[in-house]
Amino acid sequence: MMQSLSGFIAGFWQFIASLWPEPLRLVLFLGGIMAFVGLNAAYLVWVERKGAARFQRRPGPTEVGYAGLLQPIADAVKLLTKQLIVPAGVDATLFRAAPLMVMAPALMSLAVIPFSDVLSARNINVGLLMIFAFGSINVMALMLGGWSSRNKYAIISAARIVSQNVAYEIPMLLVVITMVMVTGTMNLSDIVKAQAGPFWHWNLFKVWVNPLMPVTFLIFYICMLAETNRAPFDMAEAESELVAGAYTEYSGMGFGVFFMAEYANILLGCSLATVLFLGGWQSPIGIWSGVVWFLLKLYFLVFSVVWIRWTFPRTQFYGLLNLSWKILIPVSLFTLILSSAMLKLIKPFAA
Amino acid sequence: MKAFPASEIIVSAIFILCLATTGLGALIAALSVRIIRSVCGLAICCIGLAGLYYFLHSPFLALMEILIYVGAVCVTIVFAIMLAEPDEQPQPDRHGANILWGGIALTVSVALLWGLWRLSCEADFTSPPNLMTDGSIRAIGISLLTTYSLAFELISLVLFVAILGALAIARTGRTKP
User: Fold this and answer.
1) Considering the domain boundaries, does residue A282 fall inside one?
2) Each residue of A169-187: pLDDT tens digit?
3) Taking a C-beta distance cutoff of 8 angstroms, is the pair A300, A47 a contact?
4) Which of A25, A155, A165, A318 has the fewest beta carbons under 10 Å from its own?
């Protein structure tokens, strides 16, 4: 009985897959990405809490499940059972829409990330541009969330979010333009394919293309931290000064969705750093490339984000803006000019 | 590979969705009293427009629409509003000047629409035999820096106008106190 049932299911599955392979693939990828983001958001909270605890020499969550592994599920149940309060006097429509507008672009952008040679939901030619286009909606949504809360802490936080994101979007885009010039394409899959081979073929180590490549990676990484509002740049959600920043008035899952979106954005930023600089799914020794390498590099970067958060204190706001306008933007402009000059002068002779 | 059943219906449904988003966003932008909602309407309208560009086989333009108009223009406007004034809007009251300006705007836009309508009905548009460019970085770069260099430079004015307009509206308000 069971065998005939599973045979029937397998046959039915094959029938569907032979009928419409493409729509089925898309639906599977859609579900897969949502599951990936949900699972990661839940367990990155655990990683964050465990990491914070270890850096502060305490055990962290231990009560729920082995080593606190069921803690995220308990947290999610707690958040889901809480009431969604819409305070009096807020702009209710925008207040409710803001968490969704933060979450949706991150999910959409993950569709163009190539996890491996074949594991990529949509391989479009302007993938890199798509990530930045949808990333820009994120700022707008956070700002509207802060504005519509009608809370002075939230409004201060919203103003900070905008100035911070505008300031760091410039060096980030300059760095990305450098990468697009070096690789000659905005197709993320092609960018990874151009880095095939041993690890010194990764863009991070391509010093013969641009001697400042590691600096470029550093700028990208710093901007990624600032764009995702992570410490030491978490001015937007500075708990000790602004309660919870733009999220102050949110309760229950409204707050939870903001948190999920933060982790989704960290995942996205680290994936992008992996694809652009660390060779994506390419293995460092040139053989056995695959999705495992992508995930290893991705989680190494994610761990470093957690590491930095609990190691460095929050900077001051003018320190943050000075870093961007006085250091990162000039340096990234310089790398842009340098790599274009090197492309023009050295490449014709090297080829 | 067989076509997905009713794929044409799905495609036209998405097209209608894009059109509806554009129209709805434009209506919200024009009709709401609170300026922050107008900006949201503008953002929705631009996302709908991006969808329409995608239907015209230009994903690059679609993404640029989102990046520039939602990511830069709308954020700039909201930021200007935030800096300029708290959210307390005065009660709308009808002035003669408002009606005059509204009438002028209506006349101009009706004339423009009529002209465009005549143009699109009477001129015979021949669809290009193939796509103008293949959409690669190289092709886009060449056309931006040669054929369309003036338009490319003029884009930078968009942000300038956006922030000036936002300040002007946010300072005085849509309805004079």
Assistant:
1) yes
2) 889 889 988 888 888 888 8
3) no
4) A318
Tell me: pLDDT of A162 over 70: yes
For residue A285, report the phi and psi dihedrals to the nearest 5 degrees: -105, 5
Of B34, B63, B78, the CB nearest to A143: B78
Residue A292 lies in a domain: yes
CA dihedral A39, A41, A42, A43 (to 10 degrees): 80
Inter-chain CB proximity B66 and A137 less than 8 Å: yes
C-alpha to C-alpha distance for B80 and A297, rounded to whole angstroms: 40
CA distance A190 to A186: 8
pLDDT in tens, A1-36: 556 666 776 776 676 666 667 777 778 888 888 888
The span from the CA of A157 to the CA of A246, in Å, is 5
Question: How close does chain B come to A105, measured CA to CA in Å?
Answer: 11
On whether residue A42 sits in a domain, the answer given is: no
Distance, in Å, from the CA atom of A59 to the CA atom of B162, rounded to the nearest integer, reads: 52
Given an 8 Å threshold on Cβ–Cβ distance, is A139 in contact with B67?
A: no
A162 CB within 8 Å of a chain B CB: yes
Residue range(s) defining the domain that contains residue A308: 85-350
Q: For chain A, how many structural domains are there in total?
A: 1
| Confidence category of residue A230, pLDDT binned at 50, 70, 90 | confident
Asked if pLDDT for residue B110 goes beyond 90, the answer is yes
Distance separating alpha carbons of residues A35 and A41, to the nearest angstrom: 10
DSSP, res A150: T
Which residues does chain A have within 8 Å of residue B69's beta carbon, measured at their own beta carbons?
none
CA quadruple A205, A296, A126, A22: dihedral sign: positive
User: What does the pLDDT read at residue B38?
Assistant: 83
The count of CB pairs under 8 A between chains A and B is 87
Q: Residue A136: list chain B partners with CB under 8 A.
A: 66-67, 70-72, 75
Cβ–Cβ below 8 Å for B82 and A155: yes
Predicted local distance difference test score (pLDDT) of residue A76:
83
What is the rounded distance in angstroms from the CA atom of residue A347 to the CA atom of residue A262?
40
Q: How far apart are CA B42 and CA A145, in angstroms?
A: 17
B32 lies within 8 A of chain A by CB: no
Q: pLDDT tens digit string along B73-103? A: 888 777 777 766 655 555 556 667 778 888 8
Q: Does some domain include residue A73? A: no
